[in-house]
Amino acid sequence: MDGIIGISGVIAILLVMGGGLALLRPSQFDGRWLLVAALLVLVNDAMLTNVYGLLPNVFRGSDWNWQGKILALIATLAIAALPAFGWKRSGLTWHQAAGSLKASLPVMLIYMGFFVGLAWAFPSAPASAETIAFQLTMPGFEEEPYYRGILLFALDRAFLARKSFLGVEWGWGAVLSCILFGLAHAFGYSDGQFSFDPLTMALTGVPSLIGVWLVLKTRSVLLPVVLHNFGNAITLIF
């Protein structure tokens, strides 16, 4: 029940913030896509939690949520295959926009430097083989196609206004997708109350802006997937 209440809180935040932003430019807002985004949040959370514990976990004895991540990835790929989305339009493509790789290199180095700095400042204990395998794969494979793929796609269609900044066209959907990514790590519900960790929000939400920039520039989630797994795994080295 705590998980259901927690994700209900996240969806409520999305709808309230989205509704407020819609008032700024109502003519460039499509409420149907905001509702689709809210549904995506619910579906992703349900998969990650094995439908809130209703599905048996076949990875018994594992320290990590392999099953939830795999189910969430399958759901993301299935949604991306729908005509309303499309794999390429959702960024699930190997193809990189012309000239984008050269422009992306400095941004990638900043991203990598950020996580190397975190790893140096907060060294971790020796990691198990399973931990290394999980961090080198599942976070980027599951979260990037979802947050920087189908969720960003839906939110970008809910908020059509764009502002050119740092060489890409930003919309409120890009900002909201980063906020939702941060909330997924920093916001929750347990013991009868909601909790929020500002530091975790900053350490996840801010780097996700770099991931969004890369997607907007390259039109692909490929680089964010690689960098995401790098960021998670580099902390295991120090």
Describe this structure as you would to a colleague:
The chain has 238 residues and is mainly alpha-helical. The protein has helices at 2-22, 31-48, 50-53, 66-80, 100-121, 129-135, 138-158, 172-186, 198-218, 222-234; strands spanning 163-165, 168-170, 187-190, 193-196. It has a two-stranded antiparallel ribbon with strand order 1-2. Strands 3-4 form a two-stranded antiparallel sheet. A hairpin with a 2-residue loop joins strand 1 and strand 2 (168-170). Helix 8 runs antiparallel to helix 9. The longest helix has 22 residues, at 100-121. The radius of gyration is 18 Å and the shape is globular.
What sort of overall outline do the alpha carbons produce when their principal axes are compared? globular
Pattern of helices and strands: HHHHHHHEEHEEHH
Q: Give the strand content.
A: 5-15%
Instruction: Please report the distance between the alpha carbons of the first and last residues.
Output: 38 Å
Supply the helix-strand structural class.
mainly alpha
Mean of residue pLDDT values: 93
In short:
With 238 residues, this protein is mainly alpha-helical. Helix content is 66%, strand content 6%.
Give the key terms.
single chain, two-stranded antiparallel ribbon, mainly alpha, 238 residues, 66% helix
Mind sketching the topology for me?
Elements: H1 2-22, H2 31-48, H3 50-53, H4 66-80, H5 100-121, H6 129-135, H7 138-158, E1 163-165, E2 168-170, H8 172-186, E3 187-190, E4 193-196, H9 198-218, H10 222-234
Antiparallel strand pairs: 1-2, 3-4
Helix pairs in contact: 1-2, 1-8, 2-4, 2-7, 4-7, 5-9, 5-10, 7-8, 7-10, 8-9, 9-10
